[in-house]
Specification:
The structure is a homodimer of 83-residue chains.
Chain A (H helix, E strand, L loop, with lengths): L1 E9 L6 H12 L5 E14 L5 H12 L5 E8 L6
Antiparallel strand pairs in A: 1-2, 1-3
Chain lengths: 83, 83
């Protein structure tokens, strides 16, 4: 088994209303100095060793990301989840 | 300005129906060998240099993550968005 992280973010030229809402909320909560926020997704996959990089690319591009409006990155990581 | 990445993931003991739905979809699409998927969020923030690590921790814990069911990590990164 291997652990794979796929990160999906809205493309730079795509409006991100979720991120804009967070910027607004930060201001109302008194947190100053945050100029921009963009919100994306993070997936952690546990895959068999039979799953190669080509398959991971297809999984990311065809299922996890909408490549019209999002970019993605795929990387294999050591077995250490976000803490 | 500095770029900060905040990653938010469901805690290990919390059921993740979105991730389970992805596992099911992968099977139907013919991708075998993926045992578990967990879906979280990824935020990219552009912050002024006046925003210190204590403020970033508060932003993550009070606004971006629901710490009852989610864990989060905060890190400053070089100016390189996910590609």
């Amino acid at each position: 088994m291997a652990r794979v992280v796929v990160e999906v973010m809205p493309k730079a030229e795509i409006l991100d209303p979720q991120g804009q809402a967070i910027v607004g909320a930060l201001g109302r909560l008194g947190f100053d100095g945050v100029g921009e926020v963009r919100q994306g997704k993070r997936f952690e996959l546990e895959v068999d060793d039979s799953v190669d990089d080509v398959a991971l690319e297809r999984i990311a591009a065809e299922l996890l990301a909408n490549t019209v409006i999002e970019t993605y990155s795929v990387r294999r990581v050591a077995d250490a989840p976000a803490s």
